[in-house]
Specification:
The protein is α/β, with parallel strands linked by helices. It is 40% helix and 19% strand. The strands form five sheets. It has a seven-stranded parallel sheet, sandwiched between helices. The protein has a two-stranded parallel sheet with strand order 6-15. α1 links the parallel β1 and β2. α1 crosses α8, α7 packs across α11 and α9 crosses α11. The longest helix is centred in the N-terminal third of the chain and has 21 residues. The protein starts with a strand and ends in a 7-residue tail after the last helix. Bound molecules: uridine-diphosphate-N-acetylglucosamine. Uridine-diphosphate-N-acetylglucosamine binds next to α7 and β9.
């Protein structure tokens, strides 16, 4: 079985990727320092998979500690690098922490991949690298990259540059995946999005409000130049997104050298209001919400052209927006059923 190192493998997207890897015959090895994830996710993964994958509690920026993982595991075929801080507001408040963590981890990983002759890297990037899109709100991989509006976004843009520079000098091949907005939860409802503290992202805020953990959802801005005045995003089921990582690994295996970039989205724009209404209709829950002024730094509208991923990776989404939102709701209810204490 092909061993794949999954950094950040206990996080939201990482844990769903671990499931997809096992379902597709890979052997994931998880590296996570629990800086932004719950230790319980490891047991829940064990319940879903019927066994617990190998797991190391290590910070990827700690070269000596991380090297031990490489030393202990021969024949690692590839790495999926999720481990990074991802809060836009957190990065504005603590830029040094964000640059240090996100860039040091990547640089250390690249160094160790070189040292141990590991050739395939799948990297988590973000649509934030497109900034406020020029020339239309649907972006493809050739759309102009813009200066992101926060240090978090900058770390993704700089990381893409680092990867491209490094790959030019060594045997590493890389697939850079630009995520749009992942939502939803595994079909088992045993893993899902589990932010620590007040969620920045829309869907966990919605489900926490619907279940009574929060008073109301604030919708940031209803005066954008869109059909209903709210922002437009491309919301993609996290399991579809996770599956693309498996496809990217398979693709890299057949590649010569270099970096390939892929958008991961549904290819459909959806407004925040549309998402709220869909949540209400699929769950039957009435959501308490209010419109408040725009959130600083929000992009008015963006969604993916995912044709390249569909064609080159032979990948497509199988879940609808309705599936995504009902799975997110099932997950939130599951947490309540097991009396899980969410750090609010
Ligand atoms: C942004 C980045 C994304 C990054 C993510 C990390 C862009 C286009 N996207 O996602 O690349 O990976 O941050 O967290 O830069 N909203 C509300 N009320 C809330 C929360 C959100 O109205 O309580 C609205 C936002 O204004 C936005 C939409 O919901 O219009 C989605 O917000 P969010 O889930 O935070 O994701 P992005 O900001 O799109």
């Amino acid at each position: 079985m092909k061993k794949i190192l999954v950094t950040g493998g206990l996080g939201y997207i990482g844990s769903h990727a671990v499931v997809e890897l096992v379902n597709n015959g890979f052997e994931p090895i998880i590296v996570d320092n629990l800086s932004n994830s719950y230790a319980g996710v490891y047991s829940w993964l064990g319940e879903i998979l019927g066994h617990k994958p190998l797991y190391y509690q290590v910070n990827c920026a700690d070269k000596d500690g991380f090297r031990e993982v490489f030393k202990a595991n021969n024949h690692i075929k590839g790495v999926i690098h999720f481990a990074a801080f991802k809060s836009v507001s957190g990065s504005v408040a603590q830029p040094i922490l964000y640059y240090q963590n996100n860039l040091d981890s990547l640089l250390t990983l690249l160094e160790l991949m070189n040292e141990y002759g590991i050739g395939n890297l799948v990297f988590s990037s973000s649509c934030t690298v497109y900034g406020v899109p020029e020339g239309g709100i649907q972006v493809d991989e050739n759309s102009t990259l813009q200066k992101p509006n926060c240090p978090y976004g900058q770390t993704k843009l700089i990381s893409e540059q680092i990867i491209s520079d490094v790959v030019a000098t060594c045997e590493i091949k890389a697939a850079v995946l630009r995520y749009f907005n992942p939502i939803g939860a595994d079909v088992s409802a045993k893993i899902g999005e589990l932010p620590i503290g007040r969620p920045d992202n829309l869907v966990p805020f919605i489900t926490q409000t619907a279940i009574g953990l929060r008073d109301k959802l604030s919708i940031f801005g209803n005066d954008y130049d869109t059909q209903d005045g709210t922002c437009i995003r491309d919301f993609i089921h996290v399991s579809d997104l996770a599956n693309a990582h498996v496809k990217a690994l398979e693709y890299l295996d057949k590649q010569e050298g270099s970096v390939s970039v892929f958008n991961l989205g549904t290819g459909k724009g959806c407004s925040v209001m549309e998402l709220v209404k869909t949540f209400e209709s699929v769950t039957g829950e009435k959501l308490n919400y209010e419109f408040v002024p725009r959130r600083a730094g929000d992009i008015p509208a963006i969604y993916a052209n995912a044709d390249k991923s569909n064609r080159v990776l032979n990948w497509s989404c199988k879940y609808s927006l309705e599936d995504s939102l009902s799975s997110a709701w099932k997950w939130q209810k599951h947490l309540k059923d097991i009396n899980f204490e969410i750090k609010l």
